[in-house]
Amino acid sequence: MTRTAKLTIIPPGKPLSGRAMPPGSKSITNRALLLAGLAKGTSRLTGALESDDTRYMADALRAMGVTIDEPDDTTFVVTGSGRLLPPKAPLFLGNAGTATRFLTAAAALVDGTVIVDGDEHMRKRPIGPLVDAMCALGIDATAETGCPPVTVRGTGRFQADRIRIDGGLSSQYVSALLMMAAGGDRPVDIELVGEDIGALGYIDLTTAAMKAFGAKVEKTSPVTWRVEPTGYHAADFIVEPDASAATYLWAAEVLTGGAIDLGVPAEAFSQPDARAYDMIARFPHLPAEIDGSQMQDAIPTLAVLAAFNETPVRFVGIANLRVKECDRIRALSTGLTRIDPNLAREEGDDLIVQSDPALAGKRLPAEIDSFADHRIAMSFALAGLKIAGITILDPDCVGKTFPAYWRTLAALGVTYQDND
Ligand SMILES: O=C(O)C1=C[C@@H](OP(=O)(O)O)[C@@H](O)[C@H](O)C1
Ligand SMILES: C=C(OP(=O)(O)O)C(=O)O
To answer: Which pathway, metabolic or otherwise, does it act in (predicted)?
Structure first.
């Protein structure tokens, strides 16, 4: 399929109103796929996300002997044998952080060699702390560059019962170890070290999913979890909608003064990014400082929204946005300054957005580089709802987590000029 090179958004000039459902949660779908794949028996995941990231996870599990059917666009039926088999070839996981980190740890449960690899972006995303923690458990794991590819020679057995892990660069390391630990041969304590714990809400998502598939995991201190070697059992599991995807719709609503019905209230989400709802609801009176540490994937949305706020906004606690799909702090400052040279600047790892409500209604032609990052493409589309001439490069990168994004906006009344 040919990719669209660019897409120019035509400001709707009216409030966006109607029904628009976000897709299933990427984070929860990829946890449920893995846990169902590790279980013995058949699990049915409904409300799930079918996108690039979940396809990478599903295909990797298939390569390790798991049967996965997709009877419709939101359902995975997963049948596992209780044991992953060594794949014949390296697992290629694109730029899916969850799939890469979760499968690196799960590879320790395979009796044999697994090579976990990704695309050129993933090969720049650090995985050293996870690999080191696995080695400390006696698992043979190596990542020469500190990033994928990772080679794991698993046995399903551990040689220690305690792991210390710094989740500052990515909470996914902690989630990966927790999910792995239930498949091992002894109880394991997993302790967070380091000052910056990252997005704790993602760890809660992990332990909730583990329990739904029969694991026994208990928080024994504010920074320690004990995981029993129960393995997993098959389960029917409902995936909630994606809170990060919802942020674009919440922002589109306040930016255009519309009324968008997502079919699910903000309080119903268990994902960390749902906390962005209260912040978005304060627009155009966003606070002078926003701490992004517990709602990281919502920061691109909030940063573009901040451009139209009444007063400037400083984003703090976002250092690890530099090691996401791209350096998001750089991508946001680059895109915003392309719209207006004074609109944003970086100070260390903080991003300062110099708000200007008068941007709305202007024509400011700007080509926005997505840097192959779905969230950069989706958030800058919001600027295009108010400013004429915003063109998103590589708009198809939204397929990572929200393949229907452009169609969803179109159903609300947004139109595009297709430049191909
Ligand atoms: O555990 C998860 O599902 C995720 C954790 C976060 O990443 P980090 O833990 O790398 O910050 C988030 O940005 C990512 O989109 C999904
Ligand atoms: C950071 C993200 O993804 P991942 O780490 O799962 O690749 C994201 O979806 O914003």
So the answer is: Metabolic intermediate biosynthesis; chorismate biosynthesis; chorismate from D-erythrose 4-phosphate and phosphoenolpyruvate: step 6/7
The residue from 52, 297, 373, 394 that is catalytic is: 297
Ligand 1 contact via 199 beta carbon (within 6 Å): yes
Q: What is the ipTM of this complex?
A: 0.99
Give the residues across from 117 on adjacent strands: 92
Global pTM exceeds 0.80: yes
29 lines ligand 1 (CB under 6 A): no
Domains of the chain: 6-23+241-418 (3.65.10.10), 26-238 (3.65.10.10)
Rounded Cα–Cα distance for residues 305 and 394 (Å): 21
Per-residue pLDDT of the chain (420 residues; tens, 9 = 90+): 688 999 999 999 999 999 999 999 999 999 999 999 999 999 999 999 999 999 999 999 999 999 999 999 999 999 999 999 999 999 999 999 999 999 999 999 999 999 999 999 999 999 999 999 999 999 999 999 999 999 999 999 999 999 999 998 999 999 999 999 999 999 999 999 986 666 789 999 999 999 999 999 999 998 999 999 999 999 999 999 999 999 999 999 999 999 999 999 999 999 999 999 999 999 999 999 999 999 999 999 999 999 999 999 999 999 999 999 999 999 999 999 999 999 999 999 999 999 999 999 999 999 999 999 999 999 999 999 999 999 999 999 999 999 999 999 999 999 999 665
* Residue 156 zone, left/alpha/beta (φ > 0; ψ -120 to 50; rest): left
Annotated ligand binding at 175? The verdict is no
Catalytic annotation present for 297: yes
175 within ligand 1 shell (Cβ under 6 A): yes
